[in-house]
Task: inverse folding
C-alpha cells in the first residue's frame, strides 16, 4: 500500500530528476540528449533508493525499463532521433541492457544462492555451526569470538540476512538466561550483524556490493579472480572481526561466567545430503584454485552446483521459485546504470569536464570511501555501491597512474565496495541490523556507537591493506 | 498501513471487549474489529476484501445465536478469498465433536479454552500473524516490532 508520504517522495524524486535533465546545460556542460536522459534516470534511481517510496528492487527494474524506452536502440521512435531526423549515435543496444539480468556475475550469485539453499535445506548450516563453535568452549568471551567467526564464514557464502537470522535464532534461547542487567547481552546481539556484514566482504559472492565492484572491474579488463579476492578478503575479515570482538568486550562487558549453546544435531547421511556436502566443497575448491589450474572461471563454476542440485532434485521447482530473485534484479539494475554511464559516453564527458588530473589520489580514495560509508548507513548497501562504483570507476580510470601506490583502479573500486559493506550504525542500515535491533537487546545508541567505530576502523584497515597490496604488486 | 485486519467474534460484548483489550498492543499495526455474530463477521470480511484489505486472523467464540463459531470458521476456510487467513477458536462450550470438526473441517490454527491466558493468546496471535505476513509476501519489515522473532528468523534463514 502506498501511503501519502510515499507518493510525495515519489513525486519529489521525479520532479528533481526531471530538473537534472536541464542542469548540465545551466552549468555549461554540453551533453547529448541521450546522455541527459541517463543523468535523469540516474538521479531518479538515486532518489528512489534513498527515499524508498518503492522497494529497492523495483527501482532497479524501473531503471532497466526506462533505459530500454529512452536510451536504447529500440527506444520510442521519437526519442531515437534528433530534430533533423538523424539517429542518435550513442544509443545503447537494447540487448546489452536486457543482458544485465543474465550477466555472468548474476549467474555467479545465483550459483551462490543454490549452494546456500541446498545447505540450509539439508541443515548443513546448523550442523556445521555446531562443529565450528565447539572449540570455543564455555567461556562467554570466547563463545562471542566463535560466534563472530562462524557468522563471518557463513556470510561469505550465504546472504548476510540469512546468516544473521540463523545465528540470532541460535542465540535467542541462550540470551534469555542472561541477567537483565548483563551488558553482555548487547555484545552478543550486536556481534551477529557486525560479523554478518563484515563476513560478506570475504568472497566475491559474500554480498551484492561485491558484484557491482566485480562488474566494474570486468568492464575495465581488471578482473579479480575468486581466489585473489579471498586472498585479501579473508585476512581482512579475520582482522576486522578480532578488532570488533575487542571493541564489543570493552563497550559491553559480559558478567556471565559460563554459557552453553545448543545448536544442530547429527549430520544427515542420506545420499542427497552427501551430494550437497561434496558439491559444496568441490565448488569452493574450484573457485579458490581458479582458471589458471582448471580453465573455468568462477562464473562458469557457479553453474555446476545449479545443474547438480537440480538433477538430484535437491533444489526442487518450489525451491527455485523461492530464490531471492529480488536481489538479482537489484544488482542487474545497478549493472544497467553502470552500462548507461559507460556506453553513452556520459561518464567520459562528465569526468572530462572536471579537472580530476590535479586531484590528490589519496584524497580521492578517502573521499570516495567516506561518502560511500556515509550513504551505506542510511540506504541499501547494494544501491550505494550501484550509484557510486560506476562513477568512481570512471574517475579512477581518468587518473591514470597516480593511484598506483594505493592499489590503482582496482584498489579504489574494492575499497568503495568495502565501504558500502561497513555501513552498519543504524537499525535501517542493513537487514541484519534490523533483526538484531528487533530482539530488543540492543538500543539504537549502542548500535550507532559501535557501528560508527567499526566503520571508521574498517576503512582505515582497508586503506592500509590497499597500500600493502600495492607495495607487493598484487594490484 | 493497517491493511491487515484481526476480527474478533463473540456474542457477549464484555467477552468481546476483553479479547480486543488483550490485543491492544497490536493496534498500531493491525486494524482490530469486533462483531457479535457470525453473520456480522461474514459481511464484515466481505466488505474488508472488497476494500482491498486483508483478513489476517479471525478469533471466534463457538456457541452463539445463529451460525455457530465452528460453522463460521468452516465457511471462511472454504472461501478461496481467505485461504491464508488464520483462525482461532476461543470457547468454553465446544464438545468433542465440535472440536474435531473445527480441526478437520475448519482448519483452525489454534484452540483456546475460556478463561484464557492473555499473554498466551497475544503470543499465539503474533505468531500466526507473522506466518500470515510471511506467507502472503507482505513486506515484513514494516511490522518488525510485533512479529514473532522465532518464526521470522527461521523464515529468513531459509528464504533470505
Result:
Amino acid at each position: 500500500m502506498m501511503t501519502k508520504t510515499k507518493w510525495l517522495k515519489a513525486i519529489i524524486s521525479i520532479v528533481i530528476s526531471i530538473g537534472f535533465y536541464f542542469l548540465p546545460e545551466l552549468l555549461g556542460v554540453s551533453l547529448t540528449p541521450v546522455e541527459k536522459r541517463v543523468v535523469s534516470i540516474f538521479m531518479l534511481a538515486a532518489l528512489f533508493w534513498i527515499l524508498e517510496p518503492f522497494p529497492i528492487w523495483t527501482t532497479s527494474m524501473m531503471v532497466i525499463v526506462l533505459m530500454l524506452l529512452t536510451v536504447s536502440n529500440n527506444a520510442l521512435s521519437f526519442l531515437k532521433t534528433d530534430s533533423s531526423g538523424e539517429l542518435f549515435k550513442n544509443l545503447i543496444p537494447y540487448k546489452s541492457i536486457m543482458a544485465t539480468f543474465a550477466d555472468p556475475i548474476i549467474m555467479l550469485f545465483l550459483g551462490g544462492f543454490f549452494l546456500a539453499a541446498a545447505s540450509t535445506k539439508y541443515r548443513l548450516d546448523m550442523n556445521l555451526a555446531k562443529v565450528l563453535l565447539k572449540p570455543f568452549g564455555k567461556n562467554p568471551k570466547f563463545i562471542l569470538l566463535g560466534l563472530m567467526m562462524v557468522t563471518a564464514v557463513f556470510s561469505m557464502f550465504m546472504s548476510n540476512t540469512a546468516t544473521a537470522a540463523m545465528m540470532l535464532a541460535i542465540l535467542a534461547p541462550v540470551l534469555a538466561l542472561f541477567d537483565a542487567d548483563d551488558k553482555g547481552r548487547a555484545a552478543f546481539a550486536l556481534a551477529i550483524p557486525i560479523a554478518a556484514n563484515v563476513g560478506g566482504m570475504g568472497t566475491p559472492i559474500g554480498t551484492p556490493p561485491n558484484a557491482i565492484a566485480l562488474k566494474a572491474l570486468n568492464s575495465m579488463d581488471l578482473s579479480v579472480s575468486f581466489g585473489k579476492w579471498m586472498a585479501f578478503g579473508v585476512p581482512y575479515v579475520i582482522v576486522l572481526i578480532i578488532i570488533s570482538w575487542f571493541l564489543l568486550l570493552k563497550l559491553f562487558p559480559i558478567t556471565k561466567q559460563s554459557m552453553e549453546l545448543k545448536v544442530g544435531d547429527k549430520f544427515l547421511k542420506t545420499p542427497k545430503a552427501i551430494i550437497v556436502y561434496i558439491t559444496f566443497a568441490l565448488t569452493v575448491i574450484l573457485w579458490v584454485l581458479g582458471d589458471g589450474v582448471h580453465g573455468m572461471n568462477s562464473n562458469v563454476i557457479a553453474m555446476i552446483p545449479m545443474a547438480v542440485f537440480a538433477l538430484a532434485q535437491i533444489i526442487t521447482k518450489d525451491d527455485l521459485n523461492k530464490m531471492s530473485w529480488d536481489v538479482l534484479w537489484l544488482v542487474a539494475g545497478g549493472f544497467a546504470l553502470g552500462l548507461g554511464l559507460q556506453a553513452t559516453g556520459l561518464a567520459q564527458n562528465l569526468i572530462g569536464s572536471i579537472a580530476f588530473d590535479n586531484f590528490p589520489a589519496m584524497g580521492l580514495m578517502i573521499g570516495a570511501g567516506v561518502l560511500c560509508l556515509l550513504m551505506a548507513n542510511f540506504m541499501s548497501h547494494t544501491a550505494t555501491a550501484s550509484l557510486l562504483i560506476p562513477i568512481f570507476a570512471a574517475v579512477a580510470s581518468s587518473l591514470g597512474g597516480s593511484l598506483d601506490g594505493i592499489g590503482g583502479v582496482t584498489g579504489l573500486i574494492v575499497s568503495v565496495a568495502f565501504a558500502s559493506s561497513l555501513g552498519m550504525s543504524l537499525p535501517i542500515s542493513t537487514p541484519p541490523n534490523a533483526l538484531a535491533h528487533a530482539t530488543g537487546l540492543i538500543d539504537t545508541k549502542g548500535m550507532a556507537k559501535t557501528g560508527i567505530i567499526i566503520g571508521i576502523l574498517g576503512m582505515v584497515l582497508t586503506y592500509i591493506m590497499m597500500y600493502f597490496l600495492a607495495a607487493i604488486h598484487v594490484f | 498501513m493497517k491493511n491487515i485486519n484481526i476480527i474478533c467474534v463473540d456474542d457477549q460484548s464484555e467477552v468481546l471487549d476483553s479479547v480486543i483489550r488483550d490485543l491492544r498492543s497490536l493496534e498500531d499495526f493491525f486494524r482490530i474489529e469486533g462483531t457479535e455474530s457470525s453473520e456480522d463477521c461474514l459481511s464484515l470480511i466481505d466488505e474488508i476484501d472488497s476494500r482491498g484489505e486483508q483478513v489476517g486472523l479471525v478469533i471466534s467464540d463457538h456457541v452463539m445465536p445463529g451460525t455457530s463459531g465452528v460453522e463460521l470458521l468452516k465457511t471462511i476456510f472454504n472461501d478461496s478469498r481467505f485461504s491464508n487467513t488464520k483462525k482461532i477458536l476461543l470457547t468454553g462450550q465446544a464438545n468433542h465433536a465440535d472440536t474435531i470438526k473445527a480441526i478437520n473441517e475448519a482448519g483452525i490454527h489454534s484452540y483456546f479454552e475460556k478463561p484464557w491466558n492473555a499473554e498466551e493468546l497475544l503470543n499465539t496471535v503474533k505468531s500466526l500473524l507473522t506466518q500470515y505476513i510471511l506467507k502472503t509476501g507482505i513486506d515484513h519489515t514494516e511490522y518488525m516490532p510485533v512479529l514473532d522473532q522465532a518464526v521470522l528468523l527461521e523464515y529468513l534463514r531459509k528464504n533470505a
